[in-house]
Amino acid sequence: MPATTHPATIIDGNALAAHTRADVARRTALLSARGLTPGLAVVLVGENPASEVYVRNKVKACGDAGLHSVLERYPATMTEAELLARIDALNNDKSIHGILVQLPVPAHIDAHKVIEAISPAKDVDGFHVSSAGALMVGQPGFWPCTPYGCMKMLESIGYNLRGKHAVVIGRSNIVGKPMAMMLLAQNATVTICHSATADLKAMTLQADVIVAAVGKRNVLTADMVKPGAIVLDVGMNRNDAGKLCGDVDYAGVSQVAGAITPVPGGVGPMTIAMLLVNTVEAAEREAAAQGLA
Ligand SMILES: Nc1nc2c(c(=O)[nH]1)N[C@@H](CN(C=O)c1ccc(C(=O)N[C@@H](CCC(=O)O)C(=O)O)cc1)CN2
């Protein structure tokens, strides 16, 4: 058994998201007073029940913060060409500053092609190759909402990443890779682990910060965590009782870690809050381009 310290500080994603959304509401009010209301288009193709919840929450969060939003829902039979045509129309819609296509899309649609069709200026998910490239080279651009939210959570506890060892478990384009880039930009030493990592425990035991983003429960257990480490759980899974849980064995790890994010109520709410931040940012850039700033 690992040495037990004391229960970890819980990083409350709901509270931080509420605070972040209040700041978005303030920025939105300033823009609206100048005649430019930030607008988000959310496109959902098919009937994935989890996606239905997420897009509803995104639209509600927009309304609560004073943003304009449109939800475009299409049947799973929508063709890729039809979806690309809708994105083209939204790219040219002056009332829309941010566009997202909820993932996953049905199998007959190429998600990469769809993401690349979104104008980089409206890519508030931060998934476009231009956005990924900008993050990689430290240029202004939109950061993917989930890792961006993780960075805000670290900031909220005043954590200084300089010289710290961060281990990211997972190498997806929308979480693991951008997460590693963001940690690196803050001068952390970063290790990316994945399904072919020979000895995951040997890696995580060295980590001051661990981000678990695999999509599999109990990927990180208490014996894999150095006492006092910061643990961010990006996973969204169901346990045997059907209850929502993350990638981390929360009960065990929270006895060893210095701080930890819960699931639910951790990184998830921050994903939506950072989407609003990116959308208001896109609108602010447009306002500046129009000389309204
Ligand atoms: N176009 C996108 N698609 C997807 C993204 C994304 O950022 N852009 N991320 C995920 C889903 N997602 C947002 O879209 C998301 C997932 C979970 C949550 C959240 O708040 N979860 C709650 C629990 C919700 C529940 O009870 O089911 C929590 O963790 O507290 C927000 C957003 C994949 N697709």
From TrEMBL:
Residues 144-286 form the Tetrahydrofolate dehydrogenase/cyclohydrolase NAD(P)-binding domain. It catalyses: (6R)-5,10-methenyltetrahydrofolate + H2O = (6R)-10-formyltetrahydrofolate + H(+); (6R)-5,10-methylene-5,6,7,8-tetrahydrofolate + NADP(+) = (6R)-5,10-methenyltetrahydrofolate + NADPH. It comes from the Bacteria. Pathway: One-carbon metabolism; tetrahydrofolate interconversion. Catalyzes the oxidation of 5,10-methylenetetrahydrofolate to 5,10-methenyltetrahydrofolate and then the hydrolysis of 5,10-methenyltetrahydrofolate to 10-formyltetrahydrofolate. Homodimer. This is Bifunctional protein FolD. It comes from Rhodoferax lacus.
